[in-house]
Amino acid sequence: MNNKRKLDNTNRNTNTGTTNKNRNKRRENSNTSSSQHHHPDNPSTRTTNNMAGKRGKWSRHAASSNVNMDQITKMFDDIADPDDTTVATMEGICKLCEHINIDPMEDIRILILLHKLGANAKPAQISREEWMSGCESLQLDSTDKIQQLLPSLDPGFMEQMEFREMYKFCFNFNREGTRKTLDKDIVMPLVQMTLKDRIPSDRLCTFQSFLSSTKDASYDRITLDQWLSFLDFSLECHDLSEYDEETSAWPVLIDDYVDFSVSMKDD
């Protein structure tokens, strides 16, 4: 247990060093970019032309598809960020949820929809290009059609591998900026939202209680590996009394969670 914790801490220190190096590299790139002269070949000067080209491409797609690309564009315009109309942030996504009558804080189907639309470029937003491509692929050119799709977005219809990919997406989509981890205060409701139909409720409750009560600062933020491990562990280990941490290959978080759960039962 102690050796595993030391290994975890070594990995955290290595990751921290790598993060600092990447951060310095991004600063250098930023300084280099800001010193470049305005030039017609500079990507920033081609933005308008690129957007016009993409709109032309989408219009051509509309001629060969069964969806109205202009309507898809209008749907995105309605939820786009006023300060950057190339993306829809959480404010716009919540507005979409109002249009299709679902609760963005409780209904996992909004995350499944964003996953199927391909909202992978950055956390907590969907780009115009992702929206256009995703809606065309799913044949969605109105909010009525999105509403009609909702029943099929129930996670109960997903095979295990497809569900695991969606579960991974939920973690990445809820990250903040360039952070690679999630605050445990986000993890607790999110794990309930994503796993309530896959994992027994008592397992979810004890995991939430564990995160809420632990004094270990290393669990203030949860990694993607820990997030995925909880799902895999819950599906593989149904009886915690049979768990042997000496022979397990699970992250230390799982060891500590099992110790917590067993102690709760003993009490």
List keywords for this structure.
63% helix; mainly alpha; disordered N terminus; two-stranded antiparallel ribbon; two-stranded antiparallel sheet; 12 helices; 267 residues
Describe this structure in words.
The protein has 267 residues and is mostly helical. 63% of the residues lie in helices and 4% in strands. It has twelve helices and four strands, in the order H-H-H-E-H-H-E-H-H-H-E-H-H-E-H-H. The chain has helices at residues 2-34, 47-64, 69-79, 90-100, 109-117, 128-138, 143-149, 160-173, 184-195, 201-213, 224-236, 252-266; strands at residues 87-89, 125-127, 182-183, 221-222. The strands form two sheets. It has a two-stranded antiparallel sheet with strand order 1-2. A two-stranded antiparallel ribbon has the order 3-4. Helix 3 packs across helix 6. The longest helix has 33 residues, at 2-34. It is elongated and about 60 Å long. Residues 1-52 and 59-64 have low confidence and may be disordered.
Q: Average pLDDT value?
A: 84
User: What order do the SSEs take from the amino end to the carboxyl end, as H and E?
Assistant: HHHEHHEHHHEHHEHH
How many strand segments? 4
| Gyration radius, rounded | 22 Å
Low-confidence blocks of residues: 1-52, 59-64
* Number of continuous helical runs: 12
- How much beta, percentage-wise? under 5%
* End-to-end Cα distance: 23 Å
Structural class computed from helices and strand pairing:
mainly alpha
The outline comes out as elongated
| Spatial order of the strands forming the largest sheet | 1-2
Could you estimate the helical fraction of the residues in percent? 55-70%
Q: State the major sheet.
A: 2 strands, antiparallel
